[in-house]
Structures are given as C-alpha cells and as structure tokens.
Design a protein that fits this description.
Elements lengths: L1 E7 L2 E6 L10 E9 L2 H9 L11 E9 L11 E4 L9 H4 L14 E2 L12 E4 L1 H6 L1 E3 L6 H4 L2 H14 L6 E5 L3 H12 L3 E6 L2 H8 L6 E3 L4 H7 L6 E6 L5 H9 E9 L12 H5 L4 E4 L8 H11 L10 E5 L4 H9 L7 E4 L2
Length: 348
C-alpha cells in the first residue's frame, strides 16, 4: 500500500509499505479520509518523535478485515477510529483527566512502524482496546468527511465543557482556523455570545456559516474590542486556538477580573510571560485542555453524525483534498496556511 512516511524533521515521503497485519481482537480499516491536525505538523517539523512513523489520526474508512474474536463489527462497516482510549481504571481516569492515563498515551492505531495513528496511509490496523471502546460506526447517510471530524470535535467539546459557559457570558475565540471555528461554534451552542478574532476575512466568512457573527479583525486592538462588547469589563472567557505564547497575554488582558483563559494550542513546552498579579489579585484563571475525553464520546458522536443533515455540516471546513500520492504537498500546504486554506484532508 502507499503511505506518507515520516523519515525525519521536515522529511515526509510517499512510499510503498506492507499492509498492516492484524491479530485477534483487531480490525483492518481502509482509510477514506484523514484530516491533517496541527499536532501532526508539529511532530513533523520539530522532530519530537523518532522516525520512521506514519502520522494521521482524524480518520474514517471501511472495515476491510476482522480479527478472531471481534464482535459488533463486520467487513464493509463504515467506521471512524479514535487513536487513544484510556484504561478507565487508573487514578487519572477516576479523576476524568483521561489524557494523563498511561494507557491513553499509547497509540492504538498504526499503518506500520511505531504506532502513530497511521491515517496518512491506505490501511490502518486498529488494536483490540480501540476496537472495544474507540471504533465508531458511521451511518450510510453520513459522509466519511463529516465522520473524520469526530475526534477533533471531541477535543474541542471537552474544552468547552471544562469552561462551564453560561448563556449570559461573552467568549472571545482567538484564531479562526478549523479548530478555532469548532471551538467558537460549540461555545455558541451554549447560548453564550461569541466574539471571533482572526487576520483573514475569508475565515470570518466561513465562521459566519456556523452562526458566528461577531468577527474581530486581529490586526486591530482585540482587547479594546472585547471590552467595548462587554461594557468595558472584558470577555468572561478567552480561548486561544492558535499557537504563539504572546497571545496568552492578549487573552489575559481581554478578559474581565475573575474571567478564564483556556489554552488549546499550547502543545510545545516552553516559557511564556504573563502577569502573576492578574491571576492572584484580579482572580483570573489560566487553564488548558488537551486531547479527547471518553466520557463525552457518545454525546460528541451524536452531535457530529446527527449534525451532518442539520446545522453542523463540518465538511464546510474542508478547503483542500489531496490523494495519498500528493500527501507531501498536502502537508506543505497545511504547514503554511493561507487565507483560503482551512481543514486539509488526505483521501487515499
């Protein structure tokens, strides 16, 4: 089969590799669509993970083979697969901080080499604990593209859930790429007023399709605009949906005393300046959310699958589709976003 193989920093090559073999309890899935996630790009560009690997984890496809003992699935079923599923029993699982569970940190889908998702390939092997709790059937009337958003929507829904938004609150979402729009659209569903900030009018236009009608020009004074929209107080919540530690201070300045800042894209360790008195004296809360939550899995599945024919058609976020042979060009485009580029998917 063909696959986009990570061979080192900034080095991805389309190669022929063996179709993964499956064992008892496992499933082979032929990939239809896999979105490129910002975390895939960070791994490719920073060398944070050893090579070789096949990345890609926002995937949906068709069951192509079934291992001994698998129940509930058959060849031909349309499915999406989570690549992380927690043990459900450890200290962190009991505290519902599933992303910190040691089992969760083990990747349960692979197209070969060190398991890393594998969605940038024609076939993936889905391991037994993922089959049991992280393989989701897709109805015939829902597209693979829509289903490929289940995992990223879960991560965003988790962050919104942690914020416990109230209908009388105002939320500022900094960044309107695909993840920023997902976060903003989910925040809007709580009844809160949502302000969205981005550099590009093209992205605000796509956000408007999700009812996000309070765009702010990120080239202007976003802090002043947030205060102007809230009688001078500042937003109740700011969500930082793009990388860049300098935006943390912008977010802290844009919220009211007692408000909350959620970091969603700060996935690289480092140091960032912020005013500690804003946390202590102004009682502002700085918090974060990472990866998916198994606790909301069913709710998110219903939201994405049922929303396809209603008001949550996420395929509107897809701007470019590439074949596996053009996967390197897809990664290049995703790494250098343009005003008209949003979610970029690979369709083997």
């Amino acid at each position: 089969m063909r696959a986009a193989v990570y061979r080192g920093v900034n080095d991805v090559r389309v190669e022929s590799v063996p179709v993964p073999e499956i064992g008892p309890g496992e499933v082979l899935v032929k990939i239809h669509t896999c979105g490129i996630c910002g975390t895939d790009l960070k791994k490719i560009h920073t060398g944070s993970h050893s090579a070789p690997r096949i990345f890609g984890h926002e995937m949906a496809g068709i069951v192509a083979a079934i291992g001994e003992g698998v129940s509930g699935f058959k060849i031909g079923d349309r499915v999406m697969a989570y690549h992380h599923i927690p043990c459900g029993e450890c200290f962190y699982c009991r505290k519902h901080t599933f992303a910190q569970c040691e089992t969760y940190k083990i990747v349960g889908c692979t197209a070969g080499f060190e398991p890393s998702g594998g969605g940038f390939a024609e076939y993936i092997r889905v391991m037994d604990w993922i089959v049991r709790r992280g393989l989701v059937k897709i109805p015939d009337d829902v597209s693979f593209e829509q289903a490929s958003f289940i995992e990223p929507v879960n991560t965003c829904y988790k962050a919104i859930d942690l914020l416990k938004l109230q209908p009388d609150e105002t939320v500022l979402v900094i960044g309107q790429g695909p993840i920023g729009i997902l976060l903003a659209a989910l925040a809007r569903r709580t009844g809160a007023t949502v302000l969205t900030s981005d550099l590009y009018p093209e992205r605000h236009a796509i956000a408007a399709k999700f009812g996000l009608d309070h765009p702010l020009d990120a080239r202007g004074d976003v802090v002043a605009a947030a205060k102007a929209a809230t009688e001078g107080r500042g937003a109740d919540v700011a969500l930082v949906a793009v990388g860049g530690n300098s935006l943390i201070q912008v977010a802290m300045n844009a919220i009211r005393s007692g408000g909350r800042v959620m970091l969603f894209a700060a996935t690289q360790h480092g140091e960032a300046p912020f005013d500690p008195a804003a946390v202590c004296m102004d009682e502002k809360t700085l918090m974060g959310s990472y990866s998916a939550s198994v606790a909301i899995q069913d709710e998110v599945t219903r939201l994405v699958l049922d929303g396809y024919a209603k008001d949550f058609d996420l395929t509107q976020l897809i701007s470019h589709r590439f074949s596996i042979e053009d996967a390197v060009a897809a990664i290049e485009m995703a790494s250098n976003p343009q005003p008209d580029s949003m979610k970029i998917v690979i369709q083997p």
